[in-house]
Amino acid sequence: MFPGNPQSILMPVRASTIIASFVVALLLNFLPWRDLRLAPDFVALVLVFWCVRQPRMVGLGVGWSLGLLTDAGNGVLLGQHALAYSLLAFLALWLSRRILWFGVGLQALHVAVMLLVAQAVGLLVRVASGNAFPGWPIIVGPLLGAALWPVITWLLLYRQRRSEREQAI
Amino acid sequence: MDHTPPPFFKRGPAPLVRLFFFASLSLALLVIDARFRYVEGLRGWLALAAYPLQRIALAPIEAGERIGDYFSTQARLVDENQKLREKALAYSQDAQRFAAAAAETDELRRLIDAGARLPVEVKPAEVIYASRDPYTQKIFVDRGSAQGVVAGSPVADESGIIGQVTRVHPLLSEVTLITNPDQATPVQVVRNGLRAIAFGGGASGMLELRFTASNAEIQNGDRLVTSGIDGTYPAGLPVATVVQIERDAEHTFARVICRPAAGVDRGRYVLVLANLAALPPKPEEAQAGKERRGEKSRRGRMKDAAKEAPREADVPR
User: Fold this and answer.
1) Are B47 and A72 within 8 A, CB to CB?
2) What residue spans define the domains of chain B?
3) Which chain B residue shows the shortest CA-CA distance from A94?
4) Whole-angstrom Cα distance, residue B180 to residue A129?
5) Cα separations (Å) of A156 from A10, A33, A50, B244?
6) Is there a contact between B29 and A29 if contact means CB atoms under 8 Å apart?
7) Alpha carbons A1 and B73: distance in angstroms, whole number
8) What CATH architecture applies to the domain B121-279+303-317?
9) For residue range A40-51, what is the model confidence (pLDDT) as tens digits?
10) Hey, of A9, A29, A86, A117, which one would you mutate to test binding to chain B, going by the most B CBs within 10 A of its CB?
11) SS3 call for B188
12) Partner of A155 at 20 to 30 A CA spacing, among A45, A81, A132, B96?
């Protein structure tokens, strides 16, 4: 169905998988990272994934709510991540028809651009509200996130694939 | 992928319209939060919702530490015990002398008719995690309004001030470290009593004394303690040591860099001090004049008086 993996037809996704993946991503984000600028934003990554794969189930509303939760949990300006995640969700929805025609490597490049744009929006908000620029390592997080894209794809499609394999037997 | 036919006619508003809606909602929230602080209630509820996730995220680390503790060797424990006993002995000497000195100070203050110093109430707390925000230096501790923490309380560790409580949630509170760029701490040089304000240096982990005249009498190695005249910090707690001074004839102010005395970016246990000092209200006219002058720039910044106090209390004139 999709050129990314022409041999397999995936099972429909379960809502529980989506919810569980977001909970795990939030958990990973709340881990005490040593240098926050280098840590990839897992919630953003999972959001992009589901917006690309299931544009009718996950969209701007989900992104916005997750952003608000992240903002409150981290004690930053309320609305900063909400803005970044809704823009991210929009970009992912917009590119969702296009991205899946590429291989995983080129998909990751698209994702890198999206994550960088979202990070830039967050940066713009913070600089506008009077914080200092935290230095160039800030772009490492999104790039690392994009590098994790193949892993995330494999992990999050696992449940859909497994049921398909069981049926084949 | 999906087995249902796509709903051709019922797809809701176009993505661009949705983006516009959510982006304006976010921007409105940003402005309200940054300038007016009307959404603290909403933030409290959301923080409460995120709290279990945050605790679960820390569980593996805590478990790892517990396992490490379990396997710590007998020799290490004995060694540590010995060191702690020596430390306690040294501290007990200090404590005995402190009691005598405090009594003497009270006596002297009574002689000159000065108000008595209030005792400082201390609540121990554990650092849960550092804020996931590379722009600010903040930590979260596991004591909140349920345990009686109030916003504005100073926070210290065993060797000095580390910050100030800036937001209190039901079960945890947010501590802005003294190295945060916006955070101001009123200090005093121990050697000669010179007053100044220490501002955070951001990611460098240092402090900077702003508005210190270039001919001010200050030198490398000077110890800075809280001056206590702001009514927020108790007087005499170590804050930092001066490590570098740049005096340039071109500038009015010297550039003074100091290293924090406390382990601001490390350590797990901190003390939340209660600010019991009841200062007399500020004079009427001075207050009114200040309001008019600083209204515009101030509205967006820290609203609560406790935060405001160190900013204005002792700018060297």
Assistant:
1) yes
2) 15-65, 72-117, 121-279+303-317
3) B15
4) 15
5) 12, 23, 9, 53
6) no
7) 60
8) Beta Barrel (2.40)
9) 899 999 999 999
10) A86
11) strand
12) A81
